[in-house]
């Protein structure tokens, strides 16, 4: 069954005007031409699309169904036209990106640099958020793209596996554990911790795993940035569980080192999340495709 766009446009016009006469004036076509197009559509469908009355028309159930699909066709054509126009002019626009501290500290800077080098007309509005807040922002439309840990619940989002990181123990270089090849989490919990804020995905993971052992983390200081956590560890105020890559960045300038954590959950997976990939702007979709290809 094939339909031409002109007939569908006329059908939409009649459905919205609820009158063949008003539709003919709006479309600048003769009333007979409008009637002929509608009759051809009804013949093709095999069912009446309108119920005719002396003062106008009303959609039949078949007409209601066609109205829904016809609108989707023209919405898709509109999106296609805009998207192809964006590509012909070079991708421009802005991407609303929310990401965890871990993703921003480790992986995203390099990817953002290569993406904006390829598409210099794109601007990114980046916000650092905890995993649950990123999911809420994606669902509410305040963010287009999110990057968060895979254990963060996101049932209403489309997600794509992306990168992995390793959680290690950050200790001062002169700490009793600094020369260990690996350490178990139960031993870590005997020390005072420098922890991230309570809503962070990392702290949620720590408390979840501590509960499985029947233990409670002893938090001496809670701060919101990896930089502060590393500085406090170097100052001897406690130990911290952080991504290995982050610890090694600071190990070059302050007296800390990383000790591997001998636990299967120490390897974390990060995911890219969006509300609906097909409905993303061309700019946001290109950014997601860039991340997934990296």
TrEMBL record:
| Coiled coil region boundaries | none
- SUPFAM superfamilies tied to this protein: Periplasmic binding protein-like II, Winged helix' DNA-binding domain
The record, for Pfam families, names: HTH_1, LysR_substrate
Instruction: List the GO molecular function terms.
Output: DNA binding; DNA-binding transcription factor activity
Positions of the HTH lysR-type domain: 3-60
> Where does the chain cross the membrane?
none
Spell out the Gene3D superfamilies in the cross-references.
3.40.190.290, Winged helix-like DNA-binding domain superfamily/Winged helix DNA-binding domain
Keywords per UniProt: DNA-binding, Transcription, Transcription regulation
* GO CC aspect terms: cytosol
Of which family is this protein a member?
A: Belongs to the LysR transcriptional regulatory family.
Protein name, entry field:
Transcriptional regulator
